[in-house]
Amino acid sequence: MAILEVKDLKIYFPIKAGLLNRTVDHIKAVDGVSFQIEQGKTYGLVGESGSGKSTIGRGIIGLEKITSGKVYFNGVDITSKNGKEIRKNLQMIFQDPYSSLNPRKRILDIIAEPLRNFERLTKKEEIKRIEELLELVGLSKESMMKYPHQFSGGQRQRIGIARAIALKPKLIIADEPVSALDVSVQAQVLNFMQDIQKELGLTYLFISHDLGIVKHFCDEISIMYKGRYVEQGTKEEIFNHPQHIYTKRLLSAIPDMNPSNRDKQFRIRKKVQQEFDQRYHDYFDSEGLAYSLKPISETHLVALQEDVQKVR
Amino acid sequence: MTRVYGLSRDLDLWGDLMELGKKETQSQQNTENNPTGLKILWSELRRDKLALFSLILLIVIVVFVYGISFVMNQDEIAKVDLFSIHKPPSKEFILGTDYGGRDVFGQLIIGTRNSLSIGFLVTFLSGVIGVAFGLVAGYFGGHIDNILMRVLDFFQVLPFIMLVIVFVSIVPNYTIIAFSLIFTAFSWMGVARLIRSKALQEKELDYVQASKTLGTSHFKIIFREVMPNISSLIIVTMTLNLASNIGLESGLSFLGFGFPESTPSLGTLLSYATNPQTLEHRWWIWFPAAVMILVLMLAVRNVGEALRRATDARQRRG
């Protein structure tokens, strides 16, 4: 059974205007998204900024109000009520390691926060747990008494991870966990996240805009555009057989290190651009949004118009 | 990022206060790397000589006034003595006497003490109410914010002075505490508005969101996470408020709605100056009180201004 199941999730933000501050319209940040994540897998959510990928994560954990749709965690409906048990098993890693740690608190108090909320530990046990956690994320015991500003970005993100795994959750929502870090530190944090995934049997919902990282990290990937899914499939399917023009465009935009491939890359990009110009309306409806998903294999779903498929 | 970041974020008043003593020797080096808020406040105060002087003067006056008034007998001072009316300053009466033969110096000390006590009390009480109110409104936002802000608006449109005068005349037992409570009821709104706006900003930051996902209660988030992070703003606002609150009692007493004459007050001493005779020929009655009010308010204000500057990196002198 899937550990997390999202059914037709919609999160709309009201646009208020006028003298009486009435709701005149909605921004459809997330517009009918469904997916499920298997235990122990990493599910990647990719899209440009403003596509609603972060909003999905925040909606699942309860930081945004869900307009409609259902979220099931281990088969339990957690759409509106977030029980203590669920909170404990569902944690989040935040994007910005600089603002996600309270600058007024010591590392000890930051990591102990979830422990103090959910578990009754004596002072000694608490210290011992935090020492273990710090060791797990590769920081020294002495860090405990320091304040967040005394650490580098990568270290701070690892402190954020230590806080998220303190309660041994089953699912972690990682909202662009490395996008605020420089490339060498990105790899370090990502490898570390993979290590603890194996060690603790974690499941990740990995939100990112970086296709390279997603390729390295995720088992299943979905591509989002303007609040809707355009394509969903396994890593191989998305990277080797992209079907939607938006996915193709994203993939063709990945820079190639090898200079001898330069002309080839250029031709590919040109071809994709041509297809985009000519067949735009086969992929996007009159409002410029993606169509609903159609399965083209067991795991691979693409947002296409019905008849386009037949033409192929 | 260290300096700008440090100032608004890194302010832990009480913790640093404790540390300040301990780390005095190594503070020079510490301020270079990661100045915490209180150290910034202190260094700004030290650089602004006027503010430093004001602070020292203020401390001297406060200690002096509270110390002396401790050994003074208020009933003795308020006692009318018909044989020593309008005596100019002499050995017996350092600052002379008023029309009831009462010692002006004694009245000045007790009056200053009363003004200071009321100032501190009103600032503290309105600060507590305003901070709590503003934090709750700003943190929750939405409907709660709307309702709370309309309540605040209601308090703000009330004719403040008139209501205070009415309250003052119907309260039977007129003490410093009663006076402070009445004033507090009408002076917490400014603080609340300011804190609300800051809390609205603060609650959007990830560390607040993180605390929510970690299952921390709203109450804890508001007072243990958000409040310490805006403590510099709280300190500055309270200091500047103190300057105006010290003059509150004097103003009302001057108008005749403050303490009765049996309770010495700076405002009562000042109001004697409405008598042209006193104004012209008996300066010792009103002049010291006027200087005292001026000095107190200016001194507190200087300190407050220096603190306010310290919270804005662009305006700092150091």
TrEMBL record, chain A:
Q: What is this protein called?
A: Peptide ABC transporter substrate-binding protein
The lineage is: Bacteria, Bacillati, Bacillota, Bacilli, Bacillales
Q: Which domain of life is it from?
A: Bacteria
Q: What's one Pfam family here?
A: oligo_HPY
Tell me the protein family, please: Belongs to the ABC transporter superfamily.
Sorted UniProt keywords: ATP-binding, Nucleotide-binding, Transport
Q: Which residues form the signal peptide?
A: none
Check the record and name the InterPro entries matching this protein: AAA+_ATPase, ABC_transp_ATP-bind, ABC_transporter-like_ATP-bd, ABC_transporter-like_CS, Oligopep_ABC_C, P-loop_NTPase
Q: Where does the record place the ABC transporter domain?
A: 4-251
Species of provenance: Oceanobacillus caeni
